[in-house]
Specification:
The structure is a single chain. The protein is of the alpha+beta class. It is built from six helices and eleven strands. Strands 1, 2, 3, 4 and 7 form a five-stranded antiparallel beta sheet that branches. The protein has a three-stranded antiparallel beta sheet with strand order 6-5-10, with no helix packed on it. The protein has a three-stranded antiparallel beta sheet with strand order 8-9-11. A hairpin with a 2-residue loop joins β8 and β9.
Length: about 240
């Protein structure tokens, strides 16, 4: 089994990743990301948010095709490090894990035009900030990443897993932490750079997909995340004060 690569500090934020062999033949793997079977751990403020339990069995990582998650991180790089405000009416101080799930549940059955728009806005925000939206059939924590003032908020709910074997559960419960922008950004970026710099050996039909992800990650260093400023500024707006 390959060694783990860990980036960051588990006391604040850490991502661990390794590739593993895929027992499925290439022709039976997902066409869009079948090159990327691996295992992933994530710690936030000392909590392993990827730890699962099935009966007496405990596992500190989740395992599945990792390319959708890696692509999601790269695609939403600016939103994760900057986008703070919820696009639906919400004047409370709840964490993203609470507020977004509350909005999705509250407007899911809306039958008026405004309610349906609020639901669409909440769903769009979830797709940019909710890690579980990148699962592509895998098991991921209900973890949200967003900007809050001069920090990055990572929050997770105790929402049970859906469509899994009976009894399989994430162990972390609910929680949240606010961490420096630099620490979160560097942990994510180092993970992405290692993953695309050391992809597993793959059949030729996946080489273009790997190259596309490599190019997307390579472009992130040109986006100076320490210059992405102005709490609540939408992605693409002019930069302001320097962040931590």
């Amino acid at each position: 089994m390959p060694d783990w690569m860990h980036f960051g500090d588990p006391a604040t934020v850490q991502i661990g990743i390794r590739w593993v062999d895929d027992c499925e033949p290439p022709e039976q793997r997902p066409a869009a990301y079948g090159w990327s079977m691996g295992q992933l751990t994530m710690h936030v403020a000392g909590v392993n948010v990827t730890a699962t339990r099935l009966g007496e069995q405990q596992q500190p990582f989740v395992g599945w095709y990792l390319a959708p998650f890696l692509d999601w991180l790269a695609t939403n790089w600016v939103a994760l490090l900057h986008d703070e405000r919820f696009p639906w009416p919400d004047l409370g101080t709840a964490t993203a894990a609470t507020a977004c799930n509350r909005a999705l549940d509250g407007w899911m059955a809306a039958d008026d035009l405004q309610g349906r728009q609020h639901y669409a806005d909440a769903q769009d925000w979830y797709l940019r900030h909710g890690v579980r939206s990148a699962a592509a059939g895998g098991i991921y924590p209900d973890l949200f990443i967003r900007r809050v003032a001069d920090d990055i908020e990572l929050s997770w709910s105790g929402t049970p897993l859906e469509f899994t074997r009976d009894g399989l559960a994430l162990e972390s419960g609910a929680g949240h932490a606010r961490l420096p922008v630099r620490e979160v950004a560097e942990t994510i970026l180092q993970t992405l750079e290692w993953a695309v710099g050391h992809p597993p050996e793959s059949p030729p039909q996946y080489h273009d997909q790997i190259a596309t992800l490599q190019a997307k990650v390579g472009a992130l260093r040109d986006i100076e995340y320490l210059d992405l400023a102005g709490s609540g500024r939408r992605p693409g707006a002019p930069a302001g004060r320097e962040l931590r």
